[in-house]
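Researcher: I'd like a candidate sequence for this fold, 191 residues long. If you have to choose between options at a position, lean toward the conservative one.
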């Protein structure tokens, strides 16, 4: 069994000016592809030859974990983007956000702060635990809430490769742009 790079649901230039075509060409076309290639190269003899990505993420360590989680994380990150998508949550997810964070604006502030203050490379996450309670998590490197038994709902990649071509050192500007791209109907389906 080997993994392949999933198709994007948008054209490479569709996120401009928030995320440029050039960033997508490197982030998806080079980085995401490299994690797929690396994992496929690591699988023979690893004991995970027939495992799903989720099984690898919750059971593996080292380079096998890192590359599998980076494939999953990037697929999940890109899948939430649609510049024409709905820009705020509705229904049960909106209710859970109000219950656990106060309101949507307070949630966005808390998530933005988590993404901005994560030291080094990693991912900010919105996830729910097995009781349905929402949490904002900071995960370094390839970290993923699945390893804590949580259900991921939304993620922001804050590795420098996600924003350096467009925003250089201005990670907060990238995070502000990120909010223009999230399609909340996708997050609701995950919830
Ligand atoms: Mn990335």
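Model: Candidate sequence:
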């Amino acid at each position: 069994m080997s993994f392949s790079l999933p198709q994007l649901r948008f054209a490479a230039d569709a996120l401009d000016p928030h995320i440029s075509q050039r960033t997508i060409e490197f982030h998806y076309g080079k980085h995401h592809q490299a994690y797929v290639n690396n994992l496929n190269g690591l699988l023979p003899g690893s004991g995970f030859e027939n495992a799903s990505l989720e099984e690898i993420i919750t059971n593996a360590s080292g380079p096998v974990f890192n590359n599998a989680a980076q494939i999953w994380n990037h697929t999940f990150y890109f899948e939430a983007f649609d510049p024409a998508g709905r820009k705020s949550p509705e229904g049960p997810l909106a209710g859970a956000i109000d219950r656990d964070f106060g309101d949507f604006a307070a949630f966005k502030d808390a998530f933005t702060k988590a993404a901005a203050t994560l030291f080094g490379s990693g991912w900010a996450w919105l996830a729910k635990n097995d009781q349905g309670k929402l949490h904002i998590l900071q995960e370094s490197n390839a970290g993923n809430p699945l390893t804590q038994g949580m259900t991921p709902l939304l993620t922001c990649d804050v590795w420098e490769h996600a924003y350096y071509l467009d925003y250089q050192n201005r990670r907060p500007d990238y995070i502000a742009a990120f909010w223009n791209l999230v399609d909340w109907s996708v997050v609701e389906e995950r919830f």
